[in-house]
Design goal:
single chain; 390 residues; alpha/beta; Rossmann fold; Dehydroquinate synthase-like, alpha domain; 2 domains; 6-stranded parallel beta sheet; two-stranded antiparallel ribbon; 15 helices; 8 strands; globular; binds 5,6-dihydroxy-NADP; binds zinc ion
Length: 390
């Protein structure tokens, strides 16, 4: 392998049932004053909140709370959380939720060391050198935020959604109990699975050919999502399906599969504009966009990657011509998203028209650095891809 990279993924994982008994011990390593962050109430409905609070009390820790963190979390929640941390001298953050809660908590951890609007951090005006320690209890398999360095927040006033990534924001410990995802709805399970798949696709589609080992890992991860997402949707309490999705979500984006894959991602930056303007679920936007992006970038230069994808992920007959396999693989992906996972297949179906496409495309080109992508694309290309999604 010619590639050069650093492997450093220090998040400690407690995987499986009944691991929460280790929560108090892990929190105590960082101090006494804990800020528990969570979303709109799903953890109260499924009983997880009570279990977490019990562990905190048993460990004689002081509990503070921030609830109501929104899907596509807002900068206002970050500022609210950072104010609590400053006022109450919080030692450690405990995020219990999906990617939105964990991302918001990462920003809170960073904003605690900044005297100003947390939005400045998302704009890159402030380097993130310090962050409060973060422990997570994951409740939705999707973003990989439980084991990665990234976070994304939104500013509804300016219709912006921005992501940042700093090593100090990576969770110290994450509790991954698949049974905590039994209550995730069919729709969120489908969206989360589309997100996991997209994280792998963004890396897998590259023109480097020297990382065979990682290509095989990624193909295995993609096959895992394709095998288990439909099972989790039909049988929400299927442990095997939930466990495979959960562990795949973490490994899709924790940094491991990128070793040496250097180019910018193509689809996430476009989706983030859709969420910014229309507050849609991230995974749904990715499902609509990804096959259209594939159709747009498929050509004589890129066909080999699509061919590998088709034969190794969807088991398409390898004796067929490369271009035929490539096109069939895109059809298979559409079937997976729109038939098997039953996600809406177009922007029109979710009431999005072309009104904002131009400005969204210009922002996506800049924020996504898409001129360094698998196939370089500019704002005009992005607008064309968005139109293909109508
Ligand atoms: O708020 P509650 O009541 O908890 O309900 C949530 C929310 O309505 C619900 N939910 C979560 N766990 C549940 C549950 N409902 C029942 N049972 C459970 N166990 O699901 C809804 C969606 O939750 P959310 O956290 O928004 O979903 P997800 O995990 O998909 O996170 C999406 C956010 O993460 C960002 C996205 O852009 C989006 O803002 N991303 C973060 C990344 C990262 N940190 O690396 C990378 C991704 O590409 C992505 O951009
Ligand atoms: Zn994503």
């Amino acid at each position: 392998m010619n590639s050069k990279f650093v492997y450093d993924i220090p998040t400690k994982i407690y995987f499986g049932e009944n691991q929460l008994k280790n929560l108090g011990k892990e929190l105590s390593k960082y101090g006494k004053r804990v800020l528990l962050t969570y979303g709109g109430g799903s953890i109260k409905k499924n009983g997880l909140y009570d279990k977490v609070v019990e562990e905190i009390k048993n460990a004689n820790l002081e509990l503070f709370e921030l609830s109501g963190i929104e899907p596509n979390p807002r900068v206002s929640s970050v500022n609210e959380g950072a104010n609590i941390c400053k006022k109450e001298n919080i030692d450690v953050l405990l995020a219990v939720g999906g990617g939105s809660v964990i991302d918001c908590t990462k920003f809170i951890g960073a904003a605690t060391y900044y005297n100003g609007d947390a939005w400045d951090i998302s704009l890159g005006k402030v380097p993130v050198e310090k962050c409060l320690p973060i422990i997570t209890v994951l409740t939705l398999a999707a973003t990989g935020s439980e084991m990665d360095t990234g976070g994304v927040i939104s500013n509804p006033k300016t219709k912006d959604k921005r992501g940042i990534s700093f090593p100090v924001m990576r969770p110290k410990v994450s509790f991954l109990d698949p049974t905590n995802t039994y209550s995730v709805s069919k729709y969120q399970t489908a969206c989360g699975s589309a997100d996991i798949l997209s994280h792998i696709i963004e890396v897998y589609f590259n023109l480097n050919t020297d990382l065979y080992m990682l290509d095989k890992v990624m193909e295995g991860l993609m096959k895992t999502v394709i095998k288990y997402a439909p099972i989790a949707i039909k049988e929400p309490n299927n442990y095997e399906a939930r466990a495979n999705l959960m562990w795949t979500s973490s490994w899709a984006i924790n940094g491991f599969v990128n070793g040496g894959k250097r180019q910018a991602w193509s689809v996430h930056c476009i989706e983030h504009e859709l969420s910014a303007y229309y507050d849609i679920t991230h995974g749904l936007g990715l499902a609509i966009l990804t096959p259209r992006w594939m159709e747009y970038v498929l050509d004589e230069n890129t066909v080999k990657r699509f061919y590998q994808f088709g034969i190794n992920v969807f088991d398409i007959d390898k004796s067929l011509p490369e271009m035929e396999v490539a096109k069939k693989s895109i059809e298979k992906l559409k079937d997976f998203f729109f038939e098997t996972l039953e996600l809406q297949s177009t922007l029109t179906k979710i009431n999005i028209d072309k009104t904002n496409f131009k400005v969204m495309s210009e922002k996506a080109e800049i924020l996504g650095n898409t001129k360094y992508a698998f196939k370089p694309i500019n704002a005009i290309d992005i607008e064309n891809i968005l139109k293909m999604c109508l």
